[in-house]
Amino acid sequence: MDVDTIVKNKKEDKKDLKKEIEKPKEKVEVPKRKAILSWESSDNLSVQINPFVITLFVIFNLTAIAYFVWKKDWFPIPVIVIISGIFIWYKISIKEELKKYSIERMGVRINDYFYPYSEIHSFWIIYNDKVKNLYITFVKRYLPSIVIDLSNANPHNVKIALSRRIPEQTQKSENLLDKLVRLLNL
Questions:
Q1: Would you say the C-alpha torsion 82, 83, 84, 87 has a positive or negative sign?
Q2: pTM of the shown model
Q3: Distance between CA 122 and CA 146 in Å, rounded?
Q4: Is residue 102 within 8 Å of residue 72, measured between CB atoms?
Q5: What is the pLDDT of residues 39-80, one digit of tens each?
Q6: What is the DSSP letter of 130?
Q7: Is residue 113 exposed (0-12), middle (13-18) or buried (19+ Cβ within 10 Å)?
Q8: Which residues contact 131 (CB under 8 A, 6 or more apart)?
Q9: N or C: at which end does the chain have fewer Cβ atoms within 10 angstroms?
């Protein structure tokens, strides 16, 4: 083979490739996942600042500052003021955000993140006058449990949909930390 035939073959290959690229391609429809059950709920259940918590917070800070002034230890006072300012700024800057939850055939979806049933160990539901929460634990023990608000969903329907795919822990209750956060409205 000489150089001219090689160059000619390459040009023909390029032309064939351009024709392949320019051909109209068929549209492939991706089937949308059907949710067995879906609902929306607020990420921050109570964004309002509880006056009782603020009163306790102010009393605690003033008492701590008075104690350090009495002891003539000046270093902790600016630290208390800075930490208090960060806490107040955080509480004021919290915005209520709606999250979309859905129970699907292959797993649980929270907004755009999907948790397959193979990664979920179990679930339990806390349902009383004050709380309507779904707790999900994972097979990997280092992952934290997810707490999902069920205020806009029927807990019985959620229980039926999940119990067909993953085991329910009936003896579990609300965590002590969750109770404290709910009581102090943090």
A1: positive
A2: 0.61
A3: 11
A4: no
A5: 888 765 555 667 777 788 889 999 999 999 999 999 999 999
A6: S
A7: exposed
A8: 174, 182
A9: N
